[in-house]
Amino acid sequence: MNETAQNRRPDGPILAIESSCDETACAILAPNGTVLAQRVISQDGHADFGGVVPEIAARAHLALLPNLVRATLQDANIAPATLSFIAASTGPGLIGGLIVGSGFAKGLALALGIPFVAVNHVEAHALTARLPGIVPDGAPFPYLLLLVSGGHCQCIAVEGVGHYRKLGGTIDDAAGEAFDKVAKMLGLGWPGGPELEKLAREGNPKAISLPRPLWRREGCDFSFSGLKTAISQKLAPFGKEPLPRQFAADLAASFQQAVADVVTNRIEHALDMMPEAKLLVAAGGVAANTVLRAALEKTAAQRGLRFAAPPLRLCTDNAVMVGWAALETWREAAERNLLPINDNALRPRPRWPLEDMASRFEAEIPSA
Ligand code: KG4
Ligand code: ZN
Questions:
Q1: Comparing C-alpha atoms, which of 269, 287, 323 is closest to residue 147?
Q2: What is the overall mean pLDDT for the chain?
Q3: Distance between Cα 79 and ligand 1 center (Å)
Q4: Could you say which DSSP state residue 85 is in?
Q5: pTM of the model
Q6: Shortest CA distance to 319 belongs to which of 47, 52, 37?
Q7: Other beta carbons less than 10 A from residue 303's beta carbon
Q8: Per-residue model confidence as pLDDT tens digits over 123-149
Q9: Domain ranges in the chain?
Q10: How do residues 301-339 score in pLDDT, each as one tens digit?
Q11: Chain-centre distance of CA 94, in angstroms?
């Protein structure tokens, strides 16, 4: 067997680290993607500030990672010496956290004498649907991905490993950011999305009329700032007085409905732009919202498409998706005779457009 064939699949488990925002996470995957262990710590030092504080996040990653990695290895009963490679989110995200996580991963890989694989965090969200067991009968390319979280809001045509086309994205706030800001205006805790969804269950989604930004506008960009302004105007007459519970619930339900309406309208346009898609995938924290999920499921069904949303623990930031994206990258590189990968020289990137990912497979080396 030549070296390339041996390298086609890593022969031992791999370890992955996620640290691009406020989740510190570690996972260990078998070469076929089976999750052997995973741990996520959602940092708790940010709630008082009503948002993620980058400096606090970076310091927390630094404090948490050594024990987290040790504990995850113990959970999987894996000796570090048996690992095949180490992967870490290397962008996009908050630069402090990226430096800590990818620096830790590079150091560990160097000490063990194994490769380091840099993972694009958004690509990891995009490929999660292909993790074995997530979508019945699998998620073959191409599919449409709706990524809606606190930091991202995009429609992406996922055409292959390393091959992505951004069809549209937010021109102001991300969907999760809008949920968080509106929840704050309603006096709810942070992160606001789940709290707002809970309150909305007591309300009437038709009670208060709100705008539907970019409704039926060409393309599939998103905008949420007008919706946020409309909410603050509805709240203005109350000044500093406490809001009547029913009014707050009606406002929450009406806002949630407006977001679901806008997002499904944008998705319809995205599907028009990608008629070859057979599957619609929703990912990111906001994909946990049951009203939005139901609306997306209905839109997909009307078009004869399958719909999938990974379970919540894989929708929000986690290290399993980082490990899986690294395994997919590794396999793709092997198929193109590009192995071995070693991204030690790759610097963390606060911005890292998905369109850049194809270049990692461009320098095709002819097989011997
Ligand atoms: O993917 P995620 O954990 O982190 C990143 O932002 O990358 O997403 C967190 C976002 C927060 O804005 C949170 O409020 C929102 O997802 N979220 C929700 C729900 N659960 C989480 N938004 C609406 N409804 C929910 N049930
Ligand atoms: Zn994310």
A1: 287
A2: 93
A3: 34
A4: -
A5: 0.91
A6: 37
A7: 16
A8: 999 999 999 999 988 999 999 999 999
A9: 14-128+315-361, 141-309
A10: 999 999 999 998 998 899 999 999 999 999 999 998 887
A11: 14
CA atoms within 13 A on the CB side of 3: 6
Model pLDDT for residues 206-235, shown as the tens digit of each residue: 999 999 999 989 999 999 999 999 999 999
Structural tokens at position 178: 């809008």
For domain 14-128+315-361, give the fold: Nucleotidyltransferase; domain 5 (3.30.420)
Q: 253 and 203 in contact (C-beta within 8 Å)?
A: yes
Residue 239 in this model has a pLDDT that exceeds 50: yes
pLDDT of residue 283: 92
Q: What angle do CA 35, 36, 41 make, to 5 degrees?
A: 80
Verify whether ligand 1 is closer than 6 Å to residue 180 (CB atom). yes
In short, whether 224's Cβ falls inside 6 Å of ligand 1 is no
Q: Are 131 and 38 in contact (CB under 8 A)?
A: no
* Alpha carbon of residue 272 to chain centroid: 24
Residue 45 C-alpha to ligand 1 middle, in angstroms?
A: 17
Buried b (16+ CB within 10 A) or exposed e, 233-262: ebbeeeeeeeeeeebbbbbbbbbbbbbbbb
Taking residues 100-125, report their average pLDDT. Answer: 97
At 24 the three-state DSSP class reads strand
The reply to whether domains 14-128+315-361 and 141-309 share a CATH topology is: yes
- Asked if residues 311 and 61 have their Cβ atoms less than 8 Å apart, the reply is no
Q: Is 272 marked as binding a ligand?
A: no
Q: What is the spatial distance between Cα 34 and Cα 14, in angstroms, rounded to a whole number? A: 11
Ligand 1: does its nearest atom lie under 6 Å from the Cβ of 149? yes
Beta strands in 183-328 (DSSP E): 279-283, 306-308
- The closest alpha carbon to 142, from 291, 273, 317, belongs to 273
Which atom from ligand 1 is nearest to the alpha carbon of 176?
12
172 is in an annotated binding site: no
Spell out the CATH class of 141-309: alpha beta
DSSP at 276: T
Q: Please enumerate in sequence order all residues whose Cβ is within 8 A of that of 3, keeping only pairs 6 or more positions apart, or say none.
A: none
DSSP letter at 213 equals: T
* 3-state secondary structure (DSSP) of residue 281: strand
